[in-house]
Amino acid sequence: MYQLNLTEFTQAQFLKEYWQKKPVVIRQGFLNFQDPICADEIAGLAGEEQVESRLVYKKGEQWQAEFGPFDDFARLGDKDWSLIVQALDHWSEDAAKMIEPFRFIPHWRLDDLMVSFATPGGGVGPHIDLYDVFICQGSGKRQWRVGEKGEHREFAAHESLLHVDPFEPIIDVELLPGDILYIPPGFPHDGVTIENSLSFSVGFRTNSTNALFSGLADHLIDAEQGLELIADPERELSTESGAINASDYGLIKQQLQQFLDDDVKFSQFAGSFLSQAKHELDLLTPELPFTKEDVGFTIKENNLQKLGGLRAFYFSHSLNEGRCYIDGAEVLFAGEVAGAVKLMCDNVSLTPEQLLPWQDNDAFLSFLTEQINAGYWYFAQ
Ligand code: SIN
Ligand code: CO
Description:
Elements: H1 11-17, E1 24-26, H2 39-45, E2 53-59, E3 62-67, E4 81-85, H3 88-91, H4 93-96, E5 110-118, E6 132-137, E7 141-147, E8 154-158, E9 161-164, E10 169-175, E11 180-183, E12 189-195, E13 197-204, H5 209-223, H6 246-261, H7 263-274, H8 292-298, E14 304-306, E15 312-313, E16 323-326, E17 329-332, H9 338-346, E18 349-350, H10 362-373, E19 377-379
Antiparallel strand pairs: 1-11, 2-3, 2-4, 4-5, 5-13, 6-11, 6-13, 7-10, 7-12, 8-9, 14-18, 14-19, 15-16, 16-17
Bound molecules: succinic acid and cobalt (II) ion.
C-alpha cells in the first residue's frame, strides 16, 4: 500500500496553497518507494494492441514520436528515448494502488496513471499540460525544470508533440526515488532523465465546455431526450422579418436552459458522462457467471475489489433514491442498500466486515451479482 508522507504541509494546506496554483516538490512523498511494475513489464504492456503507448526520441535534432504496439526497443540504443504507457491503472493492479494516496481529491477529477520509462537524456521535451499532475519518481533519477505560468509560445516539434520555447525555471531539481513533483495546468516543464528512470504520473483533469456539450449531444441522442421543438403560440406581429428579436432569442436560450435546470435529467447526463472510461477497461468478466447464491457465499469470505480504471460515482442528493453511475451508465438499485453502493463507489477494496450489514440482503446481492458478471468488481483470491 502506498501512503503519502507529507512533512511540510497537510493535505488541506496543499489544496489551499498549491492545488491549481503553483508547483511544488514533495521530497520523499513516498518513503522507501518500490516500483509497482518494472521496465520489462512496461515494455511487455507496450507490445499489446489494446494498451496505449508512445515512444519519444530525437533523430539528430528532430523530435520523433511513434505510437504502439512496439516489439523492438533494441533499435533505440541505450540513451535519449522514453516509452510512455497511458492508463497503467487499467492494466496493473499493483500500479493502480499508487492512485489511492491521492483520494483526497475526488475520483471524478482523476484522469489516469501514466508511466514513463526513460533512458539517460530521454524525455518528451519542454511542454505545457492542461492537467494537474503528480509526477512520482520511481527507480532512477530525473532532472525536472518547471517554469512560471504565463505566455509561452507553443509549437509542433513533431506532428504529435506540442512543445514550448525555452523557459526560465522556477524549479530545477533532481528527483530521486520516492520524490513527487506536483505541477498544475499551464506551467511549462521538462524532465530529462539522468539514469534509467521510471516516472509515474497521477493526472487529474476537468472537461472543457466543448467536451461537455459534445458529451451532452451524444447523451441526448442515446437517451432520445431533448426532442421537443420550440412552440410559440403567443407570437406577436413582426415588422422586421430579418430580425431574431429579444423575445425569440430568449425562447431559444430557454430551450437549452430548461434542460440544464432539470436536475434529474442533467445529473443523469453528468453522472453518466463523468463515469465514462477514457481508456479501454480490462474487464474481468467471470468465465462462468456468478449466481446470487455464489455471491452471497463468497462475500462472507473474500475481499471485494473494484476493477482498475473503473469509474463509479454517485451524487449525494440522489444516492438514497437508488441512483449511481458506473462506466458511463446510470444504474438503479433499491434505496435501502445505498450505504453499500456508496462504499463500493468510495473504495477500491472492501472487506467482508465492511459489507456485513448487507451480506444477506437480496437487493444488494442482485446489484452486486450484475456488477460482478459485467466484470466491474471481483473477489480477491
Ligand atoms: C514523462 O513522464 O516523460 C512526461 C510527463 C509529463 O511531463 O507530463
Ligand atoms: Co507534462
